[in-house]
């Protein structure tokens, strides 16, 4: 499926997919009825309607597997963003146990991390072009800030230890969301869905080749069902792309204000 389709609003995606599906269905309809003459017409009528059952079952299973895959990816993406937001919130809370200068630097670091994620990483993830370096300079900077203070008392020691753990969790969640942003249904799977849908449309047309109205109605109904299935999968296929993608709203809620 073309990349541009994934960036469309769901309504327009549905219009495009439905139009393409109905166009293909119409071409199959016209081709089958053009061939349904003489001996071929008798051969077409000899095709058993039972053939539709195994084809429909296989098509349904493929659609179910793909839907399960994309919904799992969306759930993983949501979990990664939630985990990152919770970890960064913990960093901001724990920073209050540090001296004022270090607290301000840590809050500025968290603010900068979120701003980069929202303004740079999210658009890149939407295009599946996010960069995932092996060693993150920001992670090293965060650890330096967390460890820059010699703790005085048990409270600061615990805060420092928990802050290092929270930073590790935040950057691990960041890596996960960037990795998940690369997830997509490859062309082989889409080709199988298209092939099975085409075979079912051809079979429907052949079985009803003696009645144009019945064939048109049956193929139209199945075409709408195929289009709906494709839109359902495509709209969730890339977790960070499209109208109903996973957004950075939770990270924005954690964004710390600058202290005077």
What does this entry show, briefly?
This protein is mainly α.
Overview of this protein structure:
There is one protein chain. The protein is mainly α. Helices cover 77% and strands 0% of the residues. The chain has ten helices and no strands. Helix 2 (10-35) packs antiparallel against helix 9, helix 5 runs antiparallel to helix 6 and helix 6 (137-146) runs antiparallel to helix 7 (154-181). The longest helix has 44 residues, at 52-95. The chain is rod-shaped, with a radius of gyration of 27 Å. 32% of the residues are buried.
Report the end-to-end length measured between terminal Cα atoms: 51 Å
The succession of helices and strands, N to C, reads: HHHHHHHHHH
Strand content: under 5%
Instruction: State the secondary-structure class.
Output: mainly alpha
Q: Could you tell me the radius of gyration in angstroms? A: 27 Å
Helicity level, as a percent range? over 70%
Question: What is the topology?
Answer:
Blueprint: H1 3-6, H2 10-35, H3 38-45, H4 52-95, H5 100-126, H6 137-146, H7 154-181, H8 187-207, H9 212-237, H10 249-254
Helix pairs in contact: 2-8, 2-9, 4-5, 4-7, 4-8, 4-9, 5-6, 6-7, 8-9
């Amino acid at each position: 499926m073309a990349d541009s389709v994934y960036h469309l609003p769901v309504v327009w995606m549905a219009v495009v997919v439905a139009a393409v599906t109905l166009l293909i269905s119409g071409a199959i309809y016209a081709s089958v009825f053009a061939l349904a003459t003489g001996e071929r017409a008798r051969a077409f009528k000899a095709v058993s309607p039972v053939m539709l059952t195994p084809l429909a079952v296989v098509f349904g299973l493929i659609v179910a597997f793909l839907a399960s895959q994309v919904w799992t990816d969306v759930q993983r993406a949501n979990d990664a963003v939630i985990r990152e937001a919770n970890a960064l919130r913990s960093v901001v809370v724990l920073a209050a146990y540090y001296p004022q200068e270090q607290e301000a630097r840590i809050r500025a670091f968290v603010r900068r991390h979120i701003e980069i994620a929202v303004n740079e990483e999210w658009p890149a993830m939407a295009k599946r072009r996010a960069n995932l370096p092996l060693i993150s300079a920001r992670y090293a900077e965060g650890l330096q800030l967390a460890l820059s203070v010699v703790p005085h008392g048990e409270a600061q020691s615990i805060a420092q230890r928990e802050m290092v753990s929270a930073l590790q969790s935040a950057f691990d969640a960041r890596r996960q969301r960037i990795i998940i942003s690369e997830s997509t249904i490859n062309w082989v799977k889409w080709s199988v869905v298209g092939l099975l849908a085409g075979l079912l449309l051809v079979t429907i047309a052949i079985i009803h080749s003696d009645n144009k109205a019945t064939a048109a109605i049956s193929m139209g109904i199945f075409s709408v069902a195929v289009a709906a299935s494709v839109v359902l999968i495509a709209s969730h296929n890339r977790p960070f792309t499209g109208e109903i993608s996973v957004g950075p709203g939770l990270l924005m809620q954690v964004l710390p204000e600058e202290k005077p």
